[in-house]
Structures are given as C-alpha cells and as structure tokens.
Specification:
Layout: H1 9-21, H2 25-38, H3 43-50, H4 54-67, H5 69-72, H6 88-95, H7 99-112
Helix pairs in contact: 1-2, 2-4, 3-4
Length: 115
C-alpha cells in the first residue's frame, strides 16, 4: 500500500494552509486526498469516496511523495495564441458600434492590429 508522506509539522501546516486557501474544487479534492491518505486511508476507500479511479488517487499520492505540493498543484497549460489581440478598450469600442458600421470599423482596426 502507498500512503502520502506528510511527516513534519511544517508539511502538515503547509497542507492545512493549502486546503484553506484552495479556490478550485479539483485542487481541494487533491489536497484532501493527500491529507486523508496521510491519515492511513487506503487507496480503494479514497477512490470510492471521491468517485475516482484507484490509478488517479495513486498518481496524486505518488506525485505528492515525489515533489510535495508543487507537484500536486497543476501548472497552467499553454493554450492557443489568440488570432488577434485587442485591448479591453478596443473590445468595448467594437461592442458599442452600430451593426451597419461594424464591418468598416473592424476592417480599420485589423489594419492597425497585427494578426
């Protein structure tokens, strides 16, 4: 059996703070799995409790044991670059245009913005 290794008081405090400050539900769930695993809850029990596969729970625990909270918190994945970038003011100006003027305005805007 594999369990999360939260051995020091500092690590326990860090985990508690991360649980309190987690704003995303998936992150809170991962942190709670780590906490419960450190309290000797087994993988099948955690998987059924959180409606996850045992492999997923095992992966979270293994990631935590390998690198701590840094490995549990997902990194922002790079997405597709926008086709054109406009400022908030430019978007608001587009939205306030009359539909009959929209095409002229957008064409003029495209000529000034790199696509």
């Amino acid at each position: 059996m594999i369990f999360a290794k939260v051995e020091t008081e500092e690590a326990k405090k860090e985990l508690q703070e991360a649980l309190k400050s987690a704003k995303k539900s998936y992150l809170y769930r991962r942190l709670l799995i780590i906490q419960l695993s450190s309290e000797w809850k087994n993988i099948p029990e955690l998987a059924s409790l959180f409606l996850l596969t045992e492999a997923t729970v095992r992966q979270y625990i293994q990631d935590y044991n390998d690198g701590g909270l840094v490995k549990i918190i997902p990194k922002k994945k790079p997405g597709r670059k926008p086709k054109f970038s406009l400022t908030k003011d430019q978007w608001e100006e587009i939205l306030h245009q009359s539909p009959c003027l929209f095409e002229k305005y957008v064409c003029a805007l495209y000529s000034s913005v790199r696509i």
